[in-house]
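Hypothesis: this fold can be encoded by more than one sequence.
Test: take the structure tokens below, design a sequence, compare later.
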């Protein structure tokens, strides 16, 4: 699995995603789910490896409940 690096912490990444519209979050999920895209992991500044799609799905569910 290829892993991208970011200078954001997990909390900052989640906050940035939560500021996105539902449509933009869905577009990001669709992009990451497309065949041939193998970069599911995200190494954050707090050295946590997180599946991007997991955070995106969690934030999407939270926004849809509001």
């Amino acid at each position: 699995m290829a892993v991208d690096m970011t200078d954001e912490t997990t909390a900052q990444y989640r906050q940035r995603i939560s500021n996105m519209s539902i449509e933009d979050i869905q577009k990001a999920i669709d992009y990451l789910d497309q065949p041939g895209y193998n970069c599911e992991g995200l190494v954050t500044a707090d050295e946590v490896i997180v599946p991007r799609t997991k955070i995106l799905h969690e934030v999407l569910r939270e926004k849809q409940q509001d």
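The first helix runs from residue 10 to 18. The chain has a mean pLDDT of 82.
Hypothesis status: open.
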